[in-house]
Amino acid sequence: MNHSTDPAVRALVAGTLWPGFSGRSAPDWLLRELDAGLAGAVYFGHNIDAAEPEQPAALSRQLKNARASALIGVDEEGGTVTRLEAAHGSTLPGAAQLGRVDDVAVTRLVGNELARRVRAAGANVVLAPVADVNTNPRNPVIGVRSFGSTPGLVSRHVAAITDGIQAGGVAACAKHFPGHGDTVVDSHHGLPRVELDRATLAADHLPPFAAAVEAGIAAVMTSHVVVPAFGELPATLNPELLRTLRELGFGGAIVTDALDMAAIRAEFGAGRGAVLALKAGADLLCIGNPSDLGPKRGRTDDLADYLEVRDAVLAALDDGELSVADIERAARSVAGLAEWVAAGDRVPAPQGAGLDGAAVVRSAIRVPEGDAGIPLDGLHDAGGVTVLDLRDRATIAVASTADPFTEAFRALAPCERVGVGPLPGRDVVGVLADALAHIPVDRFVVALVDAVQPGSPQRRALKVLAAARPGSIVVNAGMPADEPLAVPTIDAFGVSRVTAGVVADLVVGRSAMAGGGPR
């Protein structure tokens, strides 16, 4: 039977699709598809104009004028991952910082503030919280996005932030089921594996998702992670793993992580991945980020990405691999999420009172004391600050080039940035020697890192820095090292504007109080 030409079936299919799009206003194709039944759209940083505070809400009105029930999602975690503040970094503390403070009332306040901001932008689904338990310190994509490394800690903060978000009238979406915390591969760039038996997975990684379900979470996002104990298909495409989520008591919408990520795109293709995800029991297919900063680096456009997925699903209906019942099941679940959102719209918007993000960050960061403390003498006589960025990219997991640390230091002292990353595969000693040769000797060097576990290129680079420029300091935006680094280190537990401001004020402010500061 030829379903692909049936308008009713095409509308059902559209109701399971959640694309990204290019530009800061809705393209014509998106408005047409919304009118024809498309579930909604997801915002990325390139859709947000930081110079126009009213622009996101105006964009949302465009979408809702085309489809009143449109689900408008935004990947807004606070801390390291932000879309609404992608230009300069988030002004909210991140999950690792909240986990270190370990005050669930504060975490609930952050969730409520997230809801306030998302609603102000006209969106209604926030792709948070991260429910992953970061058990692997070398994890390249979760790390400080997680509340911590133990299931109890993560569970109580997932429940608290979910409560805060949804009390503010915005649907929360916990991610990345069944857990992306024990991986060493970033699913944006490859297909990770979690080599755990079922009992260990259940004990160490599923409790935060159970806590989210208990808190009434509206949606859960899958991970593109293979758990061999459940077979060789990644969770997004794995019927048994998605049944496991339902067995936790979850009755809401199962949302896929973006199908343009290499874990799906390179291994299966986004279209084939969409078909397998629907067969497995997923409901809402997140298609991905079409910008130059997305996983495909802008090699295809937004409409082509959308049509690849839509047409693959329609073809699978025509050849019988998918049934209309499969699509009806998914569409019912998405409609249920839309009903949740409609009810949330009637909840009074949060007022945003009572949260001091900078105070939370100050309580969370770790500063060396005593003999290992910040060497302020070098800063007293410096001709300014040089931020030596050794990281592979500006942030993990999110398409952003913002550098809030340089901006924060520049607001307090003369400051320049020297970027030398990414370091993997390069002559670290030679790269560092060349970079340092171009930094005037009277500059106070602040090395910015985020991957400093034993043997890492960034850690090796710090040994070179310690020998060549004693008196430098390190700001570690990632997970803390197991052993002390060669250079005095501030563990910031995240990349955000509020974190950078606290760190810069700490370093330059301490210097000023001690009787000096950059000339």
Task: Describe the protein in words.
This protein has 519 residues and is an alpha/beta fold. It contains 19 helices and 13 strands. The protein has helices at residues 7-14, 28-35, 55-66, 95-101, 104-120, 151-167, 198-204, 207-214, 239-247, 262-265, 270-280, 302-318, 324-345, 357-364, 376-380, 404-410, 428-437, 457-468, 497-513; strands at 17-19, 40-43, 71-74, 125-126, 171-177, 219-222, 253-255, 285-288, 385-389, 415-419, 444-449, 473-476, 489-491. The protein has a six-stranded parallel beta sheet, with helices on both faces. A five-stranded parallel beta sheet has the order 10-9-11-12-13, with helices on one face. Strands 1-8 form a two-stranded parallel ribbon. α9 links the parallel β6 and β7. It is globular, with a radius of gyration of 23 Å. The protein starts with 6 loop residues before the first helix and ends in a 6-residue tail after the last helix. The mean pLDDT is 92.
